[in-house]
Write a structure and sequence with these properties.
Layout: E1 2-6, H1 12-26, E2 31-33, H2 43-53, E3 56-60, H3 69-80, E4 84-88, H4 95-105, H5 108-113, H6 122-160, H7 172-214, H8 221-228, H9 241-273, H10 279-287
Parallel strand pairs: 1-2, 1-3, 3-4
Helix pairs in contact: 6-7, 7-9
Length: 288
């Protein structure tokens, strides 16, 4: 998230510390956009580009801007661009800045703006609710199909390594085949883990919408279920399946990395000595 900091040069160090501390406290990756100098012919061009790219404008100690036409111009230009601006005065605490930063990072205002329709029309709200529930269930089914696909493909790669035992891929050919199998397996495991993470995030977003729609209903069944399960902070009641599920690609990936390292070492030894060890035959035998 890009944050443009409007400040006086003498306050730069403190301004940077405030923003960095906020990012660490809130767990938000921040990209600070701060000009080192407001001098030179190209300053306004750089400032214009930085302001347009920023998602949030922090005005640090605006009380110091009275005698600075440059910082005043930056502030006015940020307003013209309709950027979200938060001021942090000399005597202000950082709570308001933290709240604004978190809401902006989570696009909370834009999310709330999606529910500005007629909340009294229960039937329309319920129809939308059913759509979100159906798509959430379909997402779970799709994730299971993805798991089946990757388990099948990676298992097939391990089984195909048995070709080396047939004698058709003896010598260096067996090592090359195992090397390619392990590299392909690592790539597949990375893709698998990435898709599981994306599915988990998408499902979380769907339930955020479902819970928001439930606010207009007399009963909030999904929210009640989440509370009954301890809201994710009571391990005895509920443990995230997504986190457990993501361990599987890591395990397969670790096996493939180990296979890659051992194959590489054995291959190098084979190239030097010309003798093939029993490693290839053992691995391929286990893969059959």
């Amino acid at each position: 998230m890009k944050v443009f900091v409007i400040h006086r040069s003498r306050s730069r160090k403190n301004a940077l510390k405030v923003v960095r501390d906020a990012g660490k406290k809130l767990g938000i990756p921040l990209e600070l956009v701060i000009l080192k100098s407001s001098l030179g012919s190209g300053w306004k061009t750089k400032a214009e580009q930085a302001l347009q790219a920023a998602e949030l404008i922090l005005v640090y100690h605006p009380e110091e801007f009275e005698d600075s036409p440059n910082t005043s111009w930056e502030l006015q230009r940020a307003g013209d661009l309709k950027k979200d601006i938060v001021e942090l005065g000399v005597e202000n605490d950082t709570n308001h800045f933290h709240d604004t930063l978190m809401r902006k990072y989570n696009f909370q205002d834009e999310f709330d703006g999606c529910f500005t329709g007629d909340q009294c029309d229960q039937q329309k709200a319920f129809d939308l609710y059913k759509v979100m529930v159906d798509t959430s269930e379909e997402l779970v089914a799709r994730r299971q199909r993805v798991n089946t696909f990757f388990v099948t493909i990676i298992g097939s790669l391990i089984a195909l390594s048995g070709l080396a035992q047939s004698g058709l891929l003896g010598g260096g050919g067996g090592y090359l085949f195992l090397f390619l199998v392990s590299v392909a397996g690592i790539v597949l495991c990375y893709s698998w883990q990435n898709q599981l993470r994306n599915y988990g995030q998408l499902n979380t977003a769907k339930f955020k919408v479902i819970n928001k729609l439930e606010e207009s209903f007399p009963s909030q069944i999904f929210n009640a279920e989440w509370i009954a399960m301890g809201k994710g902070v009571r391990p005895k009641k509920y443990k995230s399946f997504t986190r457990t599920e993501q361990v599987v690609p890591y395990l397969f990936g670790s096996i493939m990395v180990g296979l890659l390292l051992l194959t590489t070492v054995e291959w190098l030894l084979f190239e030097k000595s010309g003798e093939q060890s029993s490693f290839v035959w053992l691995i391929t035998y286990l893969g059959v």
